[in-house]
Automatic annotation (TrEMBL):
Cofactor details (free text): Binds 1 [4Fe-4S] cluster.
Keywords, ordered alphabetically: 4Fe-4S, Iron, Iron-sulfur, Isoprene biosynthesis, Metal-binding, Oxidoreductase
Chemical reaction(s) catalysed: (2E)-4-hydroxy-3-methylbut-2-enyl diphosphate + oxidized [flavodoxin] + H2O + 2 H(+) = 2-C-methyl-D-erythritol 2,4-cyclic diphosphate + reduced [flavodoxin]
Gene name of this polypeptide: ispG
Lineage, uppermost ranks: Bacteria, Pseudomonadati, Pseudomonadota, Alphaproteobacteria, Rickettsiales
Protein EC: 1.17.7.3
Protein name: 4-hydroxy-3-methylbut-2-en-1-yl diphosphate synthase (flavodoxin)
Organism (species): Candidatus Aquarickettsia rohweri
A molecular function GO annotation: 4-hydroxy-3-methylbut-2-enyl-diphosphate synthase activity (flavodoxin)
Residue ranges of every copy of the IspG C-terminal domain listed in the record: 298-399
């Protein structure tokens, strides 16, 4: 029998972000980011809770001006009042040293600071501003994520590496030097933070690019050169299926190699679309790789000329909707319900086999027949459903299966 290869994580350091442990042998963490103006306290709280309920274990917010910084204590205090222990991370650019200094409660209550070494300041103020942020992190016992981004890379470091490369007999490509600069920026910044006094177990690194192969290359190299937990994400992944596929390709490759401790899908949502799509994508990637379970999984056939497609498609959609609506309740009542496997199949060719492999599955006979479906539980045929209420009856069987098979907490 062929066994699954165990994925061995590359990072060994652990970093505590609020109530979440990141790195080492801890579960890979799903995180997301709000897109509300942070000073709009009500809207930001609503979106944080929405993301958290969808499965985001850490939520990042923009802290870009004094009003946003003043809003942070109010946001976190309101979450606490609602008994929601959600790690909220502040994302700082250019003026983070000022905002954290002027609003001490912002610095005190955030679970982590995210800074970009490429834009903590300009010219001779850059190192001073970086040092100030690190000192505040030390004072408040907070971790930081040093997040290098190719769109805002440290131009002084990049220019220096480009100059040295140009003097070589066989210079490397500009893309190669750019990737090298990203890695060096992250590692040099982490080293500088430790020299200032920040413990190594307070540092997370990220190095984001928008091209899949560039991202894979950079993280492979970065993981060889440090033991810090790494946050994965394809920056500016894109809209719709392009963003989904690019993110999945990049993150899956790295995760399969044991690289990555937190992940985010930086998708561009459609106007008015929920931000939770990026959370669900991250969960699906981890669950598809069998790294973590988040919700019962439905196997459903694509349909063909043998199937009455609209019937089983609607059945699969109804089952998925039932799961989505009940997971918050189920996960608080039934231990390991996330591992449940359900099959919804459209005909007798692969239907019975797929249904037997699932915990509970339903197999329709195919096209042009009266509505009838065989149900299998734990590999055995247990029911035959007929008539116009097959969906409702199967949902009831799923609910009964969960009640009987999963240990109550």
């Amino acid at each position: 029998m062929v066994g699954l290869q165990k994925i061995i994580r590359k990072s060994t350091l652990e970093v505590k972000v609020g109530n979440i442990l990141v790195g080492g042998k801890n579960p890979i963490v799903v995180q997301s980011m709000t897109n509300t103006p942070t000073q709009n306290i009500k809207a930001t709280i609503t979106q944080i809770i929405e993301l958290y309920n969808a499965g985001s274990e850490i939520v990042r917010v923009t802290v870009n001006d004094i009003e946003a910084a003043r809003a942070i204590p109010k946001i976190i205090n309101e979450l606490d009042r609602k008994n929601l222990n959600i790690p909220v991370v502040g994302c700082f650019h250019y003026n983070g040293h000022t905002l954290l200094s002027e609003i001490p409660d912002c610095a005190k209550l955030l679970a982590k600071y995210r800074i970009n070494p490429g834009n903590v300041g300009f010219k001779n103020k850059r190192d001073k501003n970086f040092e100030k942020i690190i000192e505040l992190a030390i004072k408040n016992k907070k971790p930081i994520r040093i997040g290098v981004n190719w769109g805002s890379l440290d131009q002084y470091l990049l220019a220096d590496l480009m100059d040295k490369n140009a003097k070589l007999n066989l210079p490397k490509s500009a893309d190669y030097i750019m990737r090298k600069a990203i890695i060096e920026s992250a590692l040099q910044s982490a080293k500088k933070a430790e020299e200032i006094g920040l413990d190594s177990n307070k540092i997370i690194l990220s190095a984001k690019l928008s091209k899949v192969q560039d991202l894979i290359s950079v993280y492979r190299e970065l993981s060889k050169k440090c033991n810090y937990p790494l946050h994965l994400g394809l920056t500016e992944a894109g809209i719709g299926i392009k963003g989904v596929i690019a993110t999945t390709a990049a993150l899956s490759t790295l995760l399969q190699e044991g690289i990555g401790d937190t992940i985010r899908a930086s998708l561009t949502p459609k106007v008015g679309e929920s931000r939770t799509t990026e959370v669900k994508l991250c969960q699906e990637i981890l669950q598809s790789l069998e790294i973590r379970d988040f919700a019962p999984q439905i196997s459903a056939c694509p349909g063909c000329g043998r199937t009455s497609s609209t019937y089983f498609q609607q059945l699969a959609q109804d089952i998925q909707k039932h799961i989505d609506e009940n997971m918050i309740y189920w996960k608080n009542k039934y231990k390991n319900v996330e591992s449940l496997k359900i099959a919804v199949m459209g005909c007798i060719v692969n239907g019975p086999g797929e249904s037997k492999h699932a915990d509970i599955g339903i197999s329709l006979p195919g096209d042009g027949e009266n509505p009838v479906a065989v149900v299998y539980t734990d590999s055995k045929k247990t029911n035959t459903l007929r008539g116009n209420n097959i969906t409702q009856e199967f949902i009831k069987l799923v609910d009964n299966y969960i009640t009987q098979k999963f240990t109550n907490k």
